[in-house]
Design a protein that fits this description.
The protein has 239 residues and is α/β, with parallel strands linked by helices. It contains 8 helices and 5 strands.
Length: 239
């Protein structure tokens, strides 16, 4: 609960004790927290909540705040509606970016699932095109990308603005958040494409395993070992 400063301070202290760093924080999103909302009050509330997350990033020394450009599904063929939604996203990002730049936090817009605005690489890049490259970029979610095309192909379209990753696997039918290697993503191809880009960030895992009730220790160990194997075998400079 980022509104509970006692809880935030407890987490901060625990991180120091465990010698753990916070790389990025996922900003809250829901049907009522949508920066693309055409309802100005709802949009403003979403922006306000994300600004709180930016402050949390500053406090925990996280480099990136990860933002979902849209939350609700609507017909992406309705170009007039799409144009209005993109306008709202840009308006929201502008307000968040002003706040984030002051706090030295970078904004990483995540590619959502393909039925949502910003899910396709071309749309996402169009949304962030006018913002400063040093402060507004992309969080590439491999699971979401795999529902559209190979994550390696998606990566090549966004690599010029790539800030961070959300790495998981799936079979191409829904975002299952499986450990790398448990789905159908070609990880050798993806890591090879990553090594050829200018990306020098963290291979951030976002995994649940086969079910939300899998043993977290086993899922994390399996995911870590799989990621380590793929990276060592396919990264041109070796990890």
């Amino acid at each position: 609960d980022y509104n509970d400063m006692e809880e935030v301070e407890r987490i901060k202290s625990r991180l120091l004790i465990l010698n753990l760093g916070v790389h990025s924080i996922n900003a809250p999103f829901s049907e009522n927290l949508d920066i693309s909302s055409l309802d100005e009050m709802q949009r403003s509330i979403a922006v306000s909540e994300i600004k709180k997350t930016v402050a949390l990033c500053e406090l925990l020394k996280a480099k990136f705040v990860v933002i979902h450009p849209s939350v609700k599904s609507f017909p992406l063929t309705n170009m007039e509606f799409v144009k209005k939604k993109i306008g709202q996203i840009k308006k929201s990002l502008n307000a968040i970016a002003e706040n984030a730049i002051l706090r030295k936090v970078k904004i990483a817009c995540e590619n959502p699932a393909p039925h949502l605005l910003g899910g396709y690489a071309e749309d996402l890049m169009r949304i962030i095109a006018d913002f400063p490259e040093d402060f507004v970029g992309v969080c590439l979610d491999t699971g979401h990308a795999n529902l559209i095309e190979s994550p390696a192909s998606f990566l090549k379209k966004v690599s010029s603005r790539l800030f961070t990753l959300h790495v998981s696997d799936n079979a191409g039918n829904f975002s299952a958040h499986l450990p790398p290697g448990d789905g159908k993503i070609d990880w050798a191809k993806f890591v090879s494409a990553l090594s050829e880009s200018d990306f020098d960030g963290v291979f951030m895992l976002e995994v649940l395993g086969g079910a939300r009730f899998d043993d977290p220790d086993k899922v994390l160990k399996k995911s870590y070992e799989a990621a380590k194997t793929f990276l060592t075998k396919n990264w041109k400079d070796k990890c």
